[in-house]
């Protein structure tokens, strides 16, 4: 379940951009970042980068999270470092409990009416909603 939720948040990170500001001059490799510069960390682009994730970067493949040997910094749905999300563990636990309750009682199929149209309005969301047909497992 952890792998499935991670892969969903890799393809559709709720926070697609993270704003930062340099409080001092910083040298990052070849890059010089002067004090006061506004920086946007492009989470969506990092999560979809073929260079970082391979040719199947746009495919849904939870298996890529099976390995523990994980390159840090390329998966940042909750940001990273001292200002990362304080609700990260709570959010993951909540999602797992809700998913576990749902999949133990229902099977799911996506409705024919579903249109795949993710948009960013502060956070990423499905423009036309997600219409899902639930079938009770014990019916
Ligand atoms: C899927 C759910 C969530 C996602 C994807 C998410 C994502 C994020 C991200 C990316 C940041 C960093 C923003 C930045 O530095 O610019 C952040 C910060 C934060 N999040 Fe979350 N969050 C989630 C759920 C929650 C929940 C459930 C709580 C509280 C119960 C929470 C509380 C916070 C707080 C307080 C911060 C600010 C931390 C700081 O600045 O030190 N988040 N979150």
What is the structure about, briefly put?
This protein is of the alpha+beta class. 25% of the residues lie in helices and 24% in strands.
Report what the structure shows:
- With 139 residues, this protein is an alpha+beta fold.
- It folds into 2 domains: 2-104, no CATH class; 105-139, no CATH class.
- The protein has 4 helices and 8 strands; from the N terminus they run αββββαααββββ.
- A hairpin with a 2-residue loop joins strand 2 and strand 3 (31-33).
- The radius of gyration is 18 Å and the shape is elongated.
- The two termini are 25 Å apart.
- The mean pLDDT is 94.
- Keywords: Heme, Iron, Membrane, Metal-binding, Monooxygenase, Oxidoreductase, Transmembrane, Transmembrane helix.
- Belongs to the cytochrome P450 family.
- This is Cytokinin hydroxylase-like.
- One of its GO terms (cellular component) is membrane.
Biggest sheet features: 2 strands, antiparallel
Q: Note poorly predicted spans.
A: none
Overall tally of structural domains: 2
What string, H for helix and E for strand, traces the elements in order? HEEEEHHHEEEE
Keywords: Heme, Iron, Membrane, Metal-binding, Monooxygenase, Oxidoreductase, Transmembrane, Transmembrane helix
Pfam family, one: p450
Organism: Trifolium medium
Subcellular location: Membrane
